[in-house]
Amino acid sequence: MAEHAHPPEFEVLLDTEAIQRRVRELGAEITRDYAGRELDLVGVLKGSLLFMADLARAIALPLTCDFLRVSSYEGGTKTTGVVRFDFDLTQPIKDKHVLLVEDIIDTGLTMSFLLETLRLRMPASIKVVTLLDKPGNRRTEVPIDYVGFTIPNRFVIGYGLDLEGRYRNLPYIAAMKEPAAG
Ligand code: 5GP
Q1: How far apart, in whole angstroms, are the C-alpha atoms of residue 152 and residue 180?
Q2: How far apart are CA 39 and CA 62, in angstroms?
Q3: Cα–Cα distance between 70 and 84 in angstroms, integer?
Q4: Active site annotation includes 86
Q5: Displacement of CA 10 from its chain's centroid (Å)
Q6: Which CATH class is domain 10-176?
Q7: Residues 106, 133, 145, 162: which is the catalytic one?
Q8: Which residue owns the Cα nearest ligand 1 atom 9?
């Protein structure tokens, strides 16, 4: 089997080059918007792992990185609607310019929980960047400041996103194939 292979029921949705180009654009936009300020990038693990690493390198500003982890999925491809902290930030965010880095916003439940919780810690500002936005499955409205790609309501893997823990290392994003019509 090839080194980077997705399961046969998946197909490439966004290739490596498209992702890298878009991440560089997002980095340039964020660099312009935050000029003169110091940024605190907060990655939502584990999915934001690859995106965070590439995005941080595309931002030409002084910045710090921190991580947190919440779970909303009990494995498989269905959301449970339950969000809880697995682990929290290592540093306070009071008076900092926080940019939350997500892999994908689907129902919006995770991000609205995070925004509500982190705002109580009085950051100077808090914004959201997500590589992927799946607005077709939204259950609650979430303000998103930067979106890499808006995608259809399909289950995706790769570039940090997993299927039962695997495939995070794919350098591209693959989507589950639509069932054949008829
Ligand atoms: P939300 O709370 O917005 O429904 O979901 C956010 C989290 O659900 C994401 O950070 C991600 O971990 C997971 N998720 C949502 N859609 C997908 C998907 O298509 N593929 C994978 N692998 N995870 C997803």
Answers
A1: 16
A2: 7
A3: 5
A4: no
A5: 20
A6: alpha beta
A7: 106
A8: 104
Query: What are φ and ψ of residue 107, in 5° steps?
Result: -70, -25
Three-state secondary structure call for residue 70: strand
Amino acid at 1: M
- Is the distance from CB of 50 to CB of 16 less than 8 angstroms? no
Q: Taking each helix axis as running N to C, give the angle between helix 49-58 and helix 16-33, from 0 to 180 degrees, rounded to the nearest 10.
A: 50
Instruction: Give me ligand 1 centre to Cα 74, in Å.
Output: 11
| Ligand 1 mutation pick, 82, 86, 106, max ligand atoms within 8 A of CB | 106
How far apart are alpha carbons 113 and 100 in whole angstroms?
Answer: 12
Which residues in the chain come in under a pLDDT of 50?
none
> Tokens 């080059």 belong to which residue?
17
72, 89, 143 from 80: Cα distances, Å: 6, 24, 22
Amino acid found at 48: S
Cβ-contact 128, 102 below 8 angstroms:
yes
> pLDDT, tens digit, for every residue of 97-150?
999 999 999 999 999 999 999 999 999 999 999 999 999 999 999 999 999 999
